[in-house]
């Protein structure tokens, strides 16, 4: 994660069902679904003003850390999150082994 995002807090916006970070009034976020044991990440997006800044990668990394600390298992349905984990295989430890594409990570 780029250093300029390290101090930016992650918010779990339960009313919008998304994890988000805010940078200069703009948002990068991941839509999620949740059960008692799992968190499914469905879609990652950043406001156009944040394009190319690394904000999307930062919200992914912060969200993965949140899931790790929660003790829940991850279902990475979002292609961006899936690709992030493929690039950073140390995060595979939080992916639910029952996830259909687990062996492709």
From TrEMBL:
**Gene Ontology MF terms:** acyltransferase activity
Matches recorded under InterPro entries: Acyl_CoA_acyltransferase, Gcn5-rel_NAT, GNAT_YJDJ
- Residue ranges occupied by any N-acetyltransferase domain in the UniProt entry: 11-96
Q: Which keywords, in A-to-Z order, does the entry hold? A: Acyltransferase, Transferase
State the source organism's domain of life: Bacteria
What top-level class of enzyme does the UniProt entry assign? transferase
Q: Does the keyword DNA-binding apply?
A: no
Q: Is Transferase one of the keywords UniProt gives this record? A: yes
Its Enzyme Commission number(s) read: 2.3.1.-
Protein name from the UniProt record:
GNAT family N-acetyltransferase
Q: Species name for this entry?
A: Epilithonimonas ginsengisoli
Lineage in the entry? Bacteria, Pseudomonadati, Bacteroidota, Flavobacteriia, Flavobacteriales
């Amino acid at each position: 994660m780029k250093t300029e995002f390290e101090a930016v807090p992650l918010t779990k916006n339960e009313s919008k069902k998304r994890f988000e970070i805010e940078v200069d009034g703009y948002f990068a976020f991941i839509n999620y679904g949740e059960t008692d044991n799992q968190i499914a990440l469905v879609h990652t997006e950043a406001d156009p003003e944040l394009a190319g800044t690394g904000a999307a990668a930062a919200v992914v990394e912060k969200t993965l850390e949140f899931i790790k600390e929660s003790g829940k298992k991850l279902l990475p349905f979002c292609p961006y999150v899936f690709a992030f984990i493929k690039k950073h295989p140390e995060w595979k430890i939080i992916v639910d082994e029952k996830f259909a594409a687990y062996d492709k990570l």
